Amino acid sequence: MTIIRENILTANQFNMLFNSVGWDSPSKEQTQTALKNSLCTFAIYKEDNLVGMARLLGDSAMSYYVKDFVILPDYQGNGLGKALMNHMISFIKQQLPKGYKVSVELISSTGKEPFYSKFGFEERPCQCDGAGMFMMVKA
Question: Fewer CB within 10 Å: N-end or C-end of the chain?
Answer without folding.
Answer: C
